[in-house]
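Incident log, support desk, overnight shift.

02:14 A customer reports that sequence design results differ from what the structure should imply. Their input is reproduced verbatim below. On-call engineer (initials T.W.) acknowledged and began investigating.
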């Protein structure tokens, strides 16, 4: 198994290394963890969202987020405000302290991206981003069919054209080998 040629392994490991580098720098230069920066970033784009909605966007459990929001509120980054029309609900908003740090978070991310792209030409970097956006689109727009649906489709279509195209013939699930 050649993990250096496995798409899934490489994408995951690059994301892990990028995240680790970002976390180290964010703690050092901003006094925030990567998770806190992520909360601030998502909240900036979805200000006024409730905790359950933010947890869903972040793909974490609501109880995990509650503790994080509690700490961030204590530190003055986030404020819980009443939801108009619902006394029980609370909206999350950024504080004045948080707004300037968003620029620094973006700058830090750009610095780490530049380190990550060292040795790539500007065009190679653009192409890499474009290819990843296309892969992202493929995975986010399509729900993989269930095995029973595939069986139904096999009855209607030729298996060779349905399940494998010439472009896919050189791809393997793991490590470059079939």
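02:41 Re-run completed on a clean worker. Output:
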């Amino acid at each position: 198994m050649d993990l250096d040629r496995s798409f899934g392994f490489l994408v995951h490991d690059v994301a892990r290394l990028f995240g680790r580098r970002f976390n180290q720098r964010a703690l050092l230069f901003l006094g925030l963890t990567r998770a806190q920066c992520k909360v601030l970033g998502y909240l900036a784009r979805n200000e006024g969202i409730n905790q359950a909605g933010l947890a869903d966007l972040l793909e974490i459990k609501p109880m995990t987020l509650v503790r994080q929001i509690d700490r961030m509120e204590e530190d003055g980054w986030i404020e819980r405000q009443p939801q108009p029309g619902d006394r029980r609900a609370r909206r999350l908003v950024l504080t004045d302290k948080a707004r300037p740090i968003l620029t620094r978070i973006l700058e830090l991310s750009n610095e780490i991206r530049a380190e990550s792209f060292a040795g790539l030409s500007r065009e190679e970097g653009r192409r890499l981003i474009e290819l990843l956006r296309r892969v992202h689109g493929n995975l986010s727009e399509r729900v993989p069919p269930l095995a029973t649906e595939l069986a139904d489709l096999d009855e209607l279509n030729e298996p060779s054209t349905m399940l494998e195209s010439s472009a896919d013939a050189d791809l393997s699930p793991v490590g470059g080998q079939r």
